[in-house]
Backbone:
């Protein structure tokens, strides 16, 4: 098995295999049947294009681990977005990211943009004690800064889709969970105010 991912993927895979080692040695309870692994990890840094079976994958570093303005320290992590070039269409999967020029460039003219989305105000509202007033207007810090800097609002998803001239948008990995048709329509409407094309909110087992 070959696994592609950003820096840190090998450490993650090695840890999972180490955790599985006792059960593999015991053959998962099957007498005389030990198990072994053959895993090759390829770590990407953004900018690479790799061939996987009959299609190509291009990786681009995005802004999910960006530092606050004025902070010149090196980020501890690297998050990647991926473009898949198949025989019949192209697909970009943003993964976790805030607004990012590199993701716009990666998504240029893509047939299907699969994007994350986060309503920071709604998420923060669920964390406040009952009856507490909204936070005072001030620069976001800590967790709130992370939500606003490292993820995209519905409006920002629409801006990305419009800037990249994509054909269709599908939203997945969104927060908070959507609990009503009205909430789903509100998010779709916010995206479509900036992107006139087709927008879908993904549900389990949907196919696109």
Residues:
């Amino acid at each position: 098995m070959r696994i592609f991912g950003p820096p840190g993927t090998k450490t993650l895979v090695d840890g999972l295999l180490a955790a599985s080692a006792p059960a593999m040695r015991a053959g998962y309870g099957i007498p005389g049947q030990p198990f072994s692994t053959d895993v090759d990890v390829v770590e990407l840094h953004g900018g690479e294009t790799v061939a996987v079976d009959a299609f190509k994958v291009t990786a681009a570093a995005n802004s999910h681990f960006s530092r606050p303005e004025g902070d010149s320290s090196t980020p501890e992590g690297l998050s990647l977005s991926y473009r898949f070039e198949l025989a019949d269409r192209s697909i970009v999967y943003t993964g976790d990211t805030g607004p990012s020029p590199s993701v716009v460039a990666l998504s240029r003219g893509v047939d299907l943009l699969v994007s994350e989305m986060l309503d920071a105000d709604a998420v923060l509202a669920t964390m406040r004690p009952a009856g507490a007033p909204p936070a005072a207007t001030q620069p976001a810090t800590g967790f709130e800064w992370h939500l606003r800097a490292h993820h995209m609002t519905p409006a920002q998803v629409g801006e990305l889709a419009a800037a990249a001239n994509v054909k269709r948008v599908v939203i997945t990995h969104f927060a908070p969970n959507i609990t009503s048709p009205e909430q789903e329509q509100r998010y779709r409407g916010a995206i479509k105010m900036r992107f006139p094309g087709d927008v879908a909110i993904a549900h389990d087992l949907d196919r696109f």
The two ends are 27 Å apart (CA to CA).
